[in-house]
Write a structure and sequence with these properties.
single chain; mainly alpha; about 60% helix; disordered C terminus
Length: about 190
C-alpha cells in the first residue's frame, strides 16, 4: 500500500488531532489491519462502529475524516490481498527519530492485536502458525523503549527494519489463513413440520 495512496503518517496524525480523535495514525491503521486479518469484510457499515468504539469513545468521526478512513480501509484490504505483498504499516517516515518509529510500531502492533481479537475470540480454533504469529506480535508490544542500547545507530536501524519485516510476515500469516476465509453464514432457520 503505497503511502501516497493513503496520505502520509504526518497528515493522518494532523487529521486525527483536528478531529479530536485520541488515537494515533499507527493505532488507526493497526486496528483496521487487525480487523481485516481477523476476518471482518472491508465494509464501512461494519467497520466504522468498531472504529468509533475503540478509537473515538463511541463518537462518530467527522464526515471528511470518515471518507478518508473508508479509503484507508479499502486500500489496506487491497494491499493485504494483492499478489505483490506490498502491504506496509502506516508509521512515521524513515527519516524520523528511531524512538518515534519504535513507539508507533508498538502502538500499531497493540492495535492490530485488539482488532484481530475482536474478530477471533478463541485462538485455540486457529492454526499453530497463526497462534505463533499472534504470540510474536504480542512480543513486539513489550519492546522496552526506555532502554539505552550500546549498539550503533546503524545496527539499531537494521534491527528496526528486521522487526518491521517480521511484523509484515506475521500479518500475512494471519490474513492468509483467517482474513481471506469466506464469511461463515449461520444456518438458515428452517422449521420442519
Amino acid at each position: 500500500m503505497p503511502l501516497s495512496l493513503v496520505q502520509s503518517y504526518e497528515r493522518w496524525s494532523a487529521a486525527l488531532d483536528a478531529a479530536y480523535v485520541m488515537a494515533s495514525a499507527a493505532e488507526l491503521h493497526g486496528l483496521i489491519s487487525g480487523l481485516l486479518c481477523g476476518g471482518m469484510p472491508a465494509d464501512a457499515s461494519e467497520f466504522l462502529p468498531v472504529l468509533h468504539d475503540f478509537l473515538n469513545d463511541g463518537q462518530a468521526l467527522p464526515q471528511a475524516l470518515k471518507t478518508d478512513v473508508q479509503q484507508l480501509i479499502s486500500n489496506t484490504a487491497q494491499s493485504l490481498s494483492a499478489a505483490e505483498y506490498d502491504f506496509a504499516l502506516l508509521l512515521p517516515h524513515d527519516d524520523d527519530a528511531l524512538i518515534e518509529r519504535l513507539e508507533a510500531m508498538v502502538e500499531w502492533a497493540q492495535a492490530f492485536l485488539v482488532g484481530f481479537s475482536v474478530q477471533q475470540t478463541d485462538l485455540s480454533l486457529l492454526s499453530e502458525e497463526v497462534r505463533e504469529a499472534v504470540n510474536q506480535l504480542s512480543e513486539v508490544t513489550k519492546v522496552d523503549l526506555s532502554t539505552q542500547d550500546d549498539a550503533s545507530a546503524e545496527e539499531n536501524e537494521e534491527a528496526y527494519f528486521l522487526v518491521l519485516e517480521h511484523i509484515r510476515l506475521m500479518v500475512f500469516s494471519c490474513y492468509n489463513e483467517v482474513g481471506q476465509r469466506p464469511a461463515v453464514k449461520g444456518p438458515l432457520n428452517k422449521t420442519l413440520h
